[in-house]
Amino acid sequence: MEQAAYDVVIVGGGAAGLSAALVLGRARRRVAVVDSGEPRNAPAAHMQGFLSRDGMSPAALLEVGRAEVAGYGVHLVEGRVEQVERDGSGFAVRLVGGPALEARRVLVATGLRDELPDLPGLRERWGKDLLHCPYCHGHEVADRPLGVLGTGPGSVHHALLLRQWSDDVVFFPHTLEVSESDRARILARGVRIVDGPVKRLVVEDDRLRGVELADGRVVEREAVFAFPRMVPRDGMLEGLGCARNEDGWPVTDATGRTSVPGLWAVGNAADPRAQVITAAGQGSAAAIALNHDLLEEEVERAVSAVG
Ligand SMILES: Cc1cc2nc3c(=O)[nH]c(=O)nc-3n(C[C@H](O)[C@H](O)[C@H](O)COP(=O)(O)OP(=O)(O)OC[C@H]3O[C@@H](n4cnc5c(N)ncnc54)[C@H](O)[C@@H]3O)c2cc1C
Predict the structure, then answer these.
(1) Would you say the CB of residue 272 lies under 6 angstroms from ligand 1?
(2) Which residues are in the FAD/NAD(P)-binding domain (predicted)?
(3) Does one domain contain both 75 and 155?
(4) Tens of pLDDT along 11-70?
């Protein structure tokens, strides 16, 4: 594959992928961004914590980003990548029902999938008044009656943390077993505990009203926080043999370089903790590393041609 159509194909056009595209486009690289249009924070009306963009809508940020990268000649492709395959020293990036794009390098910036417990009301209220990140949403629900739903070991910390935003926080362990020492810590922090399995979120007039337990009790709440199970959206990498850590996330270096030569992964696809601004920063750092990697190859090729 002497002359692939693209220097870099970026899979995923969220904050991470578009930031990488901006830097690579400005470096005069041939770049395509393939995006299926489902950014993780789409259910939220506002994006918080991005310096100079605090409160902007997630959709508006991406619209501005797409216009910026298009201005540097980056190709924006609407579609879903189903498979990334080795093709000589580069890759073939296969789109569902579409062509395969040839790429010298691939950057995966596909984000992650949030898997919520299967309880009525959770999926519908996600990003509205069922929330997970206090740094993203805590300020907006400060001083209101809040709940924390037990979904895993991290939920105890979640309850302790939430107390910082409201003095009316109820922890619902649901089916989670909570040790006596954790109970003591939660109570000492001023958080109430309501035991028993949760049946559903009570929603009226498009607003969360409370949490209903299996025994029929309803505890009035205006917002509930719950940690989802986070899963990288990287099924297209199956077959490339990318090394993963014990939790199933691609192993990368500080620039997003994976164990597969020529393959990078950044943003929530590799780091579940990345906020929008962090994901954007990771995309930018990966772009510079990718450009250096391409440069090395070009210099080697030029030296061989001369010699
Ligand atoms: C409800 C909610 C609210 C949030 N609020 C905030 C907030 O206020 N502030 C904040 O900093 N963070 C917030 N976050 C976190 C934020 O969503 C992430 O930090 C951010 O989206 C990560 O960016 P990313 O580019 O890695 O992934 P994403 O933004 O998820 O972008 C990934 C893109 O890849 C595309 N894609 C996926 N698979 C494929 C494929 N196979 N082929 C082609 N394209 C594909 C997707 O369609 C998507 O457009 C929130 C998260 C949630 C769930």
Answers:
(1) no
(2) 6-282
(3) no
(4) 999 999 999 999 999 999 999 999 999 999 999 999 999 999 999 999 999 999 999 999
What 3-state class would DSSP assign to 163? coil
Q: Say how many Å lie between the CA of residue 171 and the centre of ligand 1.
A: 28
For the chain, how are helix, strand and coil distributed in percent, rounded to 5? 30, 30, 40
Cα gap 1→57, rounded to integer Å: 41
- pLDDT of residue 97 exceeding 80, the answer is yes
CATH value at residue 189: 3.50.50.60
Domain boundary among 226, 248, 280: 226
Same-domain status, 17 and 59:
yes
Q: Is the CB of 12 under 6 A from ligand 1?
A: yes
Question: Do residues 238 and 143 share a domain?
Answer: no
Q: Which domain holds residue 244?
A: 6-114+229-306
Tell me if 110 CB under 6 Å of ligand 1.
Answer: yes
The answer to whether residues 48 and 93 belong to one domain is yes
Distance from Cα 269 to the centre of ligand 1, integer Å: 9
Q: Is the CB of 282 under 6 A from ligand 1?
A: no
The answer to whether residues 90 and 166 belong to one domain is: no
pLDDT for residue 172: 98
CA distance 256 to 24: 15
Ligand 1 in contact with 136 (CB < 6 A)?
Answer: yes
C-alpha distances out from residue 298 to 105, 182, 250, 295, Å? 13, 57, 27, 5
pLDDT in tens, 234-266: 999 999 999 999 999 999 999 999 999 999 999
